[in-house]
Amino acid sequence: ETGVTQTPRHLVMGMTNKKSLKCEQHLGHNAMYWYKQSAKKPLELMFVYNFKEQTENNSVPSRFSPECPNSSHLFLHLHTLQPEDSALYLCASSQAKGAITHGYTFGSGTRLTVV
Amino acid sequence: KNQVEQSPQSLIILEGKNCTLQCNYTVSPFSNLRWYKQDTGRGPVSLTIMTFSENTKSNGRYTATLDADTKQSSLHITASQLSDSASYICVVSRQSNTGKLIFGQGTTLQVKP
Fold first, then answer.
1. Is the dihedral of CA B1, B53, B73, B37 positive or negative?
2. Which of A74, B17, B61, B93 is deepest in the core (most CB within 10 A)?
3. What Rg value do the Cα atoms of chain A yield, rounded?
């Protein structure tokens, strides 16, 4: 385990369902990130939270709604998704200052399939 | 445009053989470059980090090189093992307040017995 835990590991949902992805870190980091990883494509940054405040929304559709109640927890609420949203969703954490030097710690991801 | 390009896209080698993965980048201003290993169904894990002044860095059987002039990096794997089968992702950091990371699309390595 890396210290960043994501649940569930796998999720299959219909286009009309509402579900949530959860991420938890115990590394004392104060920045958390959501990334989308599709086959054969680079990781796409979705959202950035620093000290619980959203500092970046990378033009993500509103059917993805993040929530960061504290520096250790991050959620991604999903509703009315499309089949092309099927991907591996990765959570990462870092120090807000020093991310460049110390890098990110990634979770194992949630494999999402939209049917 | 800040980009990171990796080659080859995929690679198959026999156990025990060596291989080299390539990464070319156009990110500026450059801060550092990392190689990550991502096992199937797992998140990426950092192998090495290289700054502007470093040319070579090793981590066990993994050796990364960096040529900041030509903006190229390579990851050399020596005496490959079955457990080396994974995706290898090159990530370049820009100097910025937000710690912007630029990801390559990865090279998928398969080591066969």
1. negative
2. A74
3. 13
Tens digits of residue pLDDT in A20-38: 999 999 999 999 999 999 9
How is residue A93 written in tokens?
Answer: 């954490």
Compute the distance between CA of residue B98 and CA of residue A57 in angstroms, rounded to an integer.
13
Chain B interface test: which of A89, A93, A100 (most B C-beta within 10 Å): A100
Angle, CA B104 vertex, CA A92 and CA A91 arms, to 5°: 10
Phi first, then psi, for residue B84 (nearest 5°) are -80, -10
Confidence of residue B98 (pLDDT cuts 50, 70, 90): low
Shortest distance, CA A88 to any CA of chain B (angstroms): 8
Q: Do B98 and A2 touch (CB under 8 A)?
A: no
* Range 52-111 of A in CB contact (< 8 A) with B: 55-56, 90, 92, 94, 99-101, 103-104, 106-109, 111
Q: How many CA atoms lie within 13 A of B113 on its CB side?
A: 0
Q: Could you count the other beta carbons within 10 Å of the beta carbon of residue B41?
A: 11
Pairwise CA distance, residues A38 & A18, whole Å: 21
